[in-house]
Amino acid sequence: MLDIDSTYQQEAQRLSNITFEPLSDSELSPTMEQQALNTLAKESLKNLSKFGGGDHEDVVKWLSDVEEVFTRTQLQSSNKYIAVESYLTDSAEKWFRANKSTIPDWSLFKIELVKAYKPSLHQLLLKMEQRMQLSNECVMDYYCDKIYLCSQVDPEMSFPMIIHYLTKGLKPSLIAHVIRRNPTTPNAFRVFAQDEEKILLTLNGFSYATTTEHYNYPIDNIDLDNQVNIIKRPINVNNQSFNRQHYQSAPQPLMNVPTTASSSSFNRADDPYRRSSSTSRQCYACHGFGHIAQYCPHRKNM
């Protein structure tokens, strides 16, 4: 028993002398972050669009996108200059190969590329004026594109001119509401247009719900009408049959009463009660049946 206790105490003492060093987050985080950054950099470079120098391509915007991706991947200027050739195609690729000897670095490359492929002021102005908000396009997308085009035409364009071009391309359903609020800055224009856009979306939702209820209402109405008609018809039929029974069961006079010319012989002839009652009449003069004393054939003989 003593040996067991002593052994247990020795083992407990040994374990208490062991120090456990916790894992340091600072040692793992940089590695994990670097791996994540490398993955993002590869994806960004892979998805970067190429530039061919076509009329529909925007050289300034393309260069801005390229510069942003290269900076995010931590490329140095010398490496940017080497890497950019992989993203040139068609006319732009031919241009670079022909002028590579006179373009030694990245900075000069950007300047010369813009000179070669930047559209004229007339083309920029035409593109800006023709930019209209699409029917299914939100205000924010339209606003950002239009502001960019305005800056391309004139980097120092005044707020009133920017608002003028923004208004010209806005959806017709939004124009009147935005003008009524009289925005004085492009940002105020965006806020007012987005507010009205939200209101219209809400109203369209209400309109759709009301239309759905309107289309469903006649169906319920038809069922209700049928139920009402089912209830009404027996009442009308019973009333008519009651009237006919009441008319047919009305007692006839025992004596022939003088009638007006409007009395119809058709009614007397077709009335079965009249026929049955006329044959059952008894004459008090001759005591015969089928007539009364006033018209008794034996009256002269009596």
From TrEMBL:
SUPFAM superfamilies: Retrovirus zinc finger-like domains (SSF57756). It comes from the Eukaryota. One of its GO terms (molecular function) is zinc ion binding. Residues 252-267 have a biased composition (Polar residues). Residues 252-274 are annotated as: Disordered. This is CCHC-type domain-containing protein. It comes from Adineta steineri.
